[in-house]
Amino acid sequence: MSIRTDNKPAETVERTPLVARLPGRLSQFSWVDAAVAAAVLVILYVVLRVGHGTTVAFNTHQNVRVDTDPTQLPYDAARSLLRMFAALTLSIAFTFCYAYAAAKSRRLERILIPTLDILQSVPVLGFLTVAVTGFIALFPGSMLGLECASIFAIFTSQAWNMTFGFYSSLTSLPRELDELSRSFGFTRWMRFWKVEVPAGMIGLVWNGMMSFGGGWFFLVASEAISVNNQQYALPGVGSYAGAAIADGDLGKVGWAILTMAVMVIGVNFLFWRPLTAWAEKFKNEQSEASEVQRSFVLDFLRRSHWPRLLGRVLRPAGRALSTAGRVFGRDDRPLVVDRTRQRTGDIVFTAVAGGLILWGLIDLGHYLYDRTGLGVFGEPLLLGLATLARVVVLVALATVVWVPIGVKIGFSPRLTRIAQPVVQVLASFPANFLFPLAVWFFLRTGVSINIGGTLLMALGAQWYILFNTIAGAMAIPSDLREAMDDLGVSGWQRWRRLIIPGIFPSYVTGGITASGGAWNASIVSEVVTFGGTTLTATGLGAYIAKATESGDYPHLIAGVAVMSLYVVGLNRLLWRRLYRLAEARYSL
Amino acid sequence: MVLNALRHLRADRQARAGLAHLTADRPRRPADGELLLESVGLTKSYAGADGELPVLSGIDLQIRAGEVVALLGKSGSGKSTLLRCLAGLVPASSGRVAYRGSPLTGANPGTAMVFQTFALLPWLTVQQNVELGLEAKGVPAAERTDAARQAIDLIGLDGFESAYPKELSGGMRQRVGFARALVVEPDVLMMDEPFSALDVLTAENLRGELMELWESGQFPTRAIVLVTHNIEEAVLMADRIVVLGARPYGTIREVFEVGLERPRDRNSPAFEDLIDRVYRTMTGRQKEGRVPGRHEALELEKRTPANTPLPPASVDGLSGLAEMVLDRGGRCDLADLADELGLEVDDLLPQVDALDLLGFTTLSGDDLLLTDTGTAFAGADVQESKKIFAEAVQHAPLVTLITKSLRNNSGGTRRAGFFRDLLAHHFTDEQVTRQLETATDWGRYAELYSYDAEPQEYHLDENDDTRLAVTAAGQG
């Protein structure tokens, strides 16, 4: 991040040299500056203190016992946060490398983009087993292995989305910016940091925020997990809640939920709001926008002198990096391409890549055939139908309930102002946190988990539909609504002619996200435990969860593969068609 | 504004001397007349349905030190593509482009571009934007700050250094574009319609200042290539005007040497005469003594969608123009009309071409003349004008093609893709889209056929009366 210091928000070009300015500046230091400095110190201290805990020695055979004393919660929360931000950093680094490679290399693009498309549909939680065993083997006897596995799980829930977003911003760079870069002979380094990253910044920040919100779910799921008949737990809010659930102590579960809420809201307020407000400056529009994102925290930071000072201190480093970055060469495209050489390269590349994939597939086939036979796919395929039915019911129910409410909210600016941040937080609040309460409720009322599982999946997924419906309703121009009022169009006719077509594109976006989220959630919501009672539903999610717990790799692979198939199939057959229809017909 | 800028100009003589000092360690400054940029047999084509579709063909062009060259043409004449070939941004399909004698292998090192849409990075300040080119060259920070500041002063942006582009007006933004290009002191300044996104007054002001600077002999570049569709702008600024033709495809139609003294007087007879000559070349009407009526009939049969593309004019636009001509007694001078409307003459060209194609008007000299049908069309009410239009639209080959093939097809329905493929043999994708849009608009208005955007299908219109009328007209 330090490379971009040239673009620091409050930075302005100063004419007077640093020396001449400093004394005057220092005397102007206000309480704002003091507050910012103190906050930075505290953050540093917490990171150091908490980070130390990640390298504690740990033995796979020791019995993991999580301390459920509520005073332990702040420390646990800090550990969880550290994990989330580590995953975010990793996701950003991955996004830059992967998206850049895919956008710049015609050959790699043909492999990387379909791969990403598949990865997006694979249920992340299914990977957890592999990750945990792998990372523990990598860091024997240290907590770091488990820590890495958890970070990896969160990473896999964040990275694909961000990468796709950045890739498409790279490939759809406005033509004049591309020509500007080449005409003025930018270096590749300059083009990346001065043109491409800023041009994709808004997408990156918003995608990052959404993915981060989704990441809480996987944080909770990955902190306490049993793999290979072995219980693992990392200090964190998720494992705290897990232990409290195991004890059946609703009071402590309540404390955990409260901590979680504070964390979600706090990160939103202190990190994402300021970031989205800051990203406004990357809007590629030539006039001042009427509606801008605002953030109290950002205003506060901008009022202090720190960003400017920091910018000035870091600028030489940025310049040095920029000079060093010249080694990557100039951003140019050769005008003459040797066709035969290109063709030969293509053929070699296709042969090598195809060979590798084929070899892997044959090996996998052998592996499955030797252990269980290829009939292993039959059971998950059948069970998938049950989970599919749950997903369909969930989306339909959420639509019936939330679309009218969302439209109501979206049409009223006052309600929107109140409801939107609330829904945003609700959407990022990890639903699996609330499962124990739901299970307690099921046990009390005798609701079957086969039906209740749908409700559990809906706990997380429904918000995407509400969220996007609000956005869609807001986007319907008010003069259209006035015209309908004027013509006396109301009731069902109004829905059919104005509202449904108007919110359709946003609704489809919400629907895709909700259905994808629901498949993923099925892994943790078809098998739930509360205070020693375990409820298991019939479905693909339960199948995968069971295979994970017993470390049964062939069944796990089959389950994950079949679930990916279902997700991809549903996307291709339903959502993508609706999406195209929305783009062609109903874009406002 | 102008005065203000001139004051800047004078005050900045010293600044310019400073800028010149920076040039000291650069290669020798080329003398007037020295060949800087050259294209020989340059051809550019894009992939079409069956093979390559040329947009530029056989372009031989030389840019010499000390001259301002304007590339003039209507939209689709390939003038912007030619500029990009010269700048090394777009590869030529055949032929060669050389800078100071050596063929280009990538972006031209001796040019810098000024863009129609400014292409400023909104996240950088004016100063940072101007520094970009120097930073790319690896100029040390302190040095480039100085050079950028001098360029900023030179171009009249003093005081705006720390502003972000979105705080500036259009004219100020384009000044940043100029400063950014001038600061790298390229041999050739490439300008792609630099004034066309600005309002009339601002454009006028900026043009004036730029030429003043060019004349002062302190201009940091040695030649200017200007792409424009504005005839007056070309005559005002250029030493040489290269007119590119759109039919059959981008070739140099004619080259005009502008021998006029600077600053040029718009009202001088020589100026007006040159504008008229360029205008006639652009509209393809330089052949004297053509009698419209007699040749039309013959020509009508020869017209095909390939040799007679539809001009991008909507029915509303062309009937609006026809009505205006009627209001002025059925005859009026195009330049005057454009002036009255606050437009450039070339803004009206698509509508004029359309009226001409439909047989509603003829051009005599610079005057637009309504024909009898044209007069009837302009004076009619909606229903009547639709009927007249339905007759006249038979002169538009693409519209007849669509109607005929719909009629030959049982069910009277055809996918748009069918016509798209037919046209793809002769036009680029973009051109095909534009032509089908026009054909759809015209056909719908004439009630010949309708178009469904969702399945992308054309349907024969069910109205029997019109269909009969069309059949008669089509076969008669």
Briefly summarize what is shown.
With 588 residues, chain A is mainly alpha-helical. Chain A has helices at 18-27, 31-52, 73-104, 106-121, 128-138, 144-171, 175-183, 188-223, 237-247, 250-279, 296-303, 306-324, 339-371, 378-411, 413-428, 435-445, 449-475, 478-487, 491-525, 540-550, 553-585; strands at 224-227, 230-233, 527-530, 533-536.
Polypeptide structure, described:
The complex is a heterodimer of chains A (588) and B (476). Chain A is built from 21 helices and 4 strands. Chain A has 588 residues and is mainly α. Chain A has 2 domains: 58-329, MetI-like (MetI-like fold), CATH 1.10.3720; 374-585, MetI-like (MetI-like fold), CATH 1.10.3720.10. Chain A has a two-stranded antiparallel sheet. In chain A, strands 3-4 form a two-stranded antiparallel ribbon. In chain A, β3 (527-530) and β4 form a beta hairpin. In chain A, α3 (73-104) packs across α8 (188-223). The longest helix of chain A has 36 residues, at 188-223. The two termini of chain A are 37 Å apart. Chain B has 476 residues and is of the alpha/beta class. Chain B folds into 3 domains: 2-282, 3-Layer(aba) Sandwich (Rossmann fold); 292-302 and 310-386, Winged helix-like DNA-binding domain superfamily/Winged helix DNA-binding domain (Arc Repressor Mutant, subunit A, Orthogonal Bundle); 393-475, Orthogonal Bundle (Arc Repressor Mutant, subunit A), CATH 1.10.10. Helix content of chain B is 45%, strand content 19%. Chain B contains 19 helices and 16 strands. Chain B has helices at residues 2-11, 13-22, 79-86, 126-137, 141-154, 170-182, 200-215, 231-237, 269-282, 292-302, 315-327, 334-341, 349-357, 372-379, 382-392, 397-408, 416-424, 429-445, 464-475, and strands spanning 35-48, 51-64, 68-72, 94-99, 102-103, 111-114, 188-192, 223-228, 240-245, 251-257, 331-333, 361-364, 367-370, 413-415, 449-452, 457-460. A 6-stranded mixed sheet of chain B has the order 6-7-8-3-9-10, with helices on both faces. In chain B, α11 crosses α14. The longest helix of chain B has 17 residues, at 429-445. Residues 1-26, 286-298 and 464-476 of chain B have low confidence and may be disordered. Chain A binds chain B through residues 6-7, 12-13, 174, 176-177, 179-180, 182-187, 190, 194-195, 198, 201, 281-288, 319, 322-323, 326, 330, 332-337, 584-585, and chain B through 84, 87-89, 91-92, 104-109, 111-113, 115, 117-119, 121-125, 127-128, 132-133, 135-138, 141, 161-162, 164-167, 173, 180, 184, 190, 453-454.
